Amino acid sequence: MLIPKKVKHRKWHKRAGMSGSNAARMNRVSFGNFGMKSMTESWVSSRQIEAARRVMVRFTRKGGKIWIRIFPDKPITKKGDEVGMGKGKGAPDHFVAVVKPGTVMFEMSGISEDKAKEAIEMASYKLPVKIRFIVK
Fold first, then answer.
1. pTM of this prediction?
2. 16-36 confidence digits (pLDDT tens)
3. Is 58 left (phi over 0), alpha (psi -120 to 50) or beta?
């Protein structure tokens, strides 16, 4: 799973929301020939990224290459079960990547377009965002 080696602050503020703005960067296919572009906003956890990557690797076999364009660098905290209200913020639990509409999340090359489309469709079931298959 992907996690940062170190973060500037152990616990981050939650922020008001992600809606209303499209991705200003990482919105074009740069490395491969095919891409997975998000249509909605969400937090994507490192477990979800790894699950999607595994599905795509299974489709490419030894022929293709995959680029992961997002990285989970935002720490999410969680308090223990049956802990009362108050007593401060919980400990860091996992990391997420903030994905806005228009962000290219994964890229592929080295396989045919129909195989790449099928792989990206299967990987999209593992993610909490709606996606679109795009070609360079």
1. 0.89
2. 666 668 888 888 999 999 999
3. alpha
DSSP state of 101: T
Structural tokens at position 6 = 């170190």
Look at the chain and report how many structural domains it folds into.
1
User: For position 57, which CATH number holds?
Assistant: 3.90.1170.10
Query: 64 φ, ψ to 5°?
Result: -110, 175
Pairing of strands 91-99, 104-109: unpaired
Specify if 58 maps to a domain.
Answer: yes
- Within its chain, how far is the Cα of 31 from the centroid? 17
pLDDT one-digit tens code per residue, 85-115: 988 999 999 999 999 999 999 999 999 999 9
